[in-house]
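[step 3/7] inverse_fold.run input=structure_tokens len=438
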């Protein structure tokens, strides 16, 4: 409805400017007024041209003023195109690498077939020699049965038998070596097949990324419409929810802690008018890889180490749209221990109330600065907490009641961690400053 009103306004303003330009041109033509020393005819033409330029300039100015995100969307389309080109180039490189791996597998397969053939031939020779050995043994037995055999023939037969046994032993050794070589080639083949499978998976993933990028490009116009029409519920970089989680826990405890965090973050997100899945009740749109990476980081940390886990909006989120968010992990540590001195300031209690107020505000600014320098996490406005209005002016009254120079000290009232706020975690003490008068 807002866009239709803008279009109607443009049409009305354009028509009004065109009408005024026509009226002015007609009056110039009737009164034969000359502009820049030109003839009235050309002066009327110049007025008509200026009117058209004003219509176009007004239309463009209104569009760029109302739709401030139009420029950003136009520039982002170049990034999407560049991303598509990079994915296409990477896909070509993976195809070439897969082709080379396939050729290597074919070469190894051919080598394996040759070795299998050699093994078959050697086994055939081994069988022939075993048959020959059996024949020799039979012949030896028959020869021993014959009384007419001579000593010389018997010796020769024994030598032939010994030589045959040596040949058999050598063939068996060659067979074992070939079997070992075949086993090695089978291992290489399995390894290459595993690499091919991995490359196929990566190529499939790249193809999916390519399709996602293409879909993103196709949806860019629709996204532009949503961003221009709806109010922003979350700005990019806004913290949706944050919580301290203990690292180094068991796998089940880590998963349970992360699931509880996501449940609480989802409830916090639904407090604003964003899109919610009616079946699951989920309002967050998270990457599975991001969740698994966060769980792995928490699991691999030292036992007992505290981590501030924050869920941060990764894009500008309009009203009634999905909330896309990323995890941000920050190490948690104790900024101030209980009783630690933070800052102090000397104030003359006899000054005017406005001066005392300014001095105390300066002291709080110093506390704020020191807390940030020591690592306390700031909020969206860059602050680390503030004290209650009533407590502040009660402190002002306490200072005024001293009627002398005093020192206001600020200490930590309890242990203050990075994700804590100062506010109720600090205490003030007032002590007398020794001077020549007192």
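[step 3/7] decode complete -> sequence:
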């Amino acid at each position: 409805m807002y866009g239709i009103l803008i279009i109607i306004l443009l049409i009305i303003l354009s028509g009004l400017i065109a009408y005024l330009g026509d009226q002015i041109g007609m009056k110039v033509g009737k009164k034969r007024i000359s502009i820049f020393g030109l003839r009235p005819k050309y002066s009327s033409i110049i007025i008509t041209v200026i009117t058209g330029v004003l219509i176009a300039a007004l239309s463009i100015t209104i569009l760029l003023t109302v739709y401030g995100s139009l420029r950003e969307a136009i520039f982002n389309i170049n990034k999407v195109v560049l991303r598509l080109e990079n994915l296409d180039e990477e896909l070509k490189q993976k195809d070439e690498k897969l082709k080379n791996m396939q050729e290597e597998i074919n070469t190894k397969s051919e080598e394996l077939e040759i070795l299998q053939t050699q093994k078959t031939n050697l086994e055939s020779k081994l069988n022939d020699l075993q048959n020959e050995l059996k024949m020799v043994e039979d012949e030896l037995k028959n020869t021993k049965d014959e009384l007419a055999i001579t000593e010389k023939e018997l010796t020769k037969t024994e030598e032939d038998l010994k030589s045959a046994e040596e040949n058999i032993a050598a063939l068996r050794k060659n067979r074992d070596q070939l079997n070992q070589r075949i086993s090695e080639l089978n291992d290489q083949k399995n390894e290459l097949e595993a690499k091919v499978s991995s490359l196929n998976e990566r190529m499939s993933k790249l193809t999916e990324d390519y399709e996602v990028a293409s879909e993103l490009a196709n949806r860019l116009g629709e996204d532009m419409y949503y961003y221009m029409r709806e109010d922003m519920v979350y700005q990019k970089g806004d913290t949706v929810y944050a919580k301290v989680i203990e690292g180094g826990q068991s796998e089940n405890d880590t998963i349970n802690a992360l699931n509880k965090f996501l449940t609480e973050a989802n409830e916090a997100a639904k407090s604003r008018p964003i899109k919610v899945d009616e079946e699951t009740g989920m309002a967050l749109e998270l990457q599975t890889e991001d969740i698994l990476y966060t769980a792995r980081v928490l699991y691999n940390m030292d036992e007992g180490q505290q981590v501030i886990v924050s869920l941060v909006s990764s894009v500008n989120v309009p009203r009634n749209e999905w909330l896309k968010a990323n995890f941000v992990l920050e190490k948690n540590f104790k900024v101030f221990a209980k009783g630690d001195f933070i800052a102090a300031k000397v104030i003359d209690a006899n000054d005017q109330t406005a001066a005392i107020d300014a001095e105390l505000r300066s002291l709080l600014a110093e506390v704020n600065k020191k807390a940030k320098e020591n690592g306390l996490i700031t909020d969206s406005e860059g602050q680390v907490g503030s004290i209650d209005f009533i407590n502040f002016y009660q402190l002002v009254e306490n200072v005024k009641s001293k009627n002398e120079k005093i020192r206001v000290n600020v200490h930590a009232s309890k242990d203050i961690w990075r994700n804590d706020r100062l506010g109720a975690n600090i205490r003030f003490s007032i002590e007398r400053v020794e001077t020549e008068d007192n």
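[step 4/7] annotate
The first strand starts at residue 232 and ends at 234.
Residues 224-230 have pLDDT under 50 and may be disordered.
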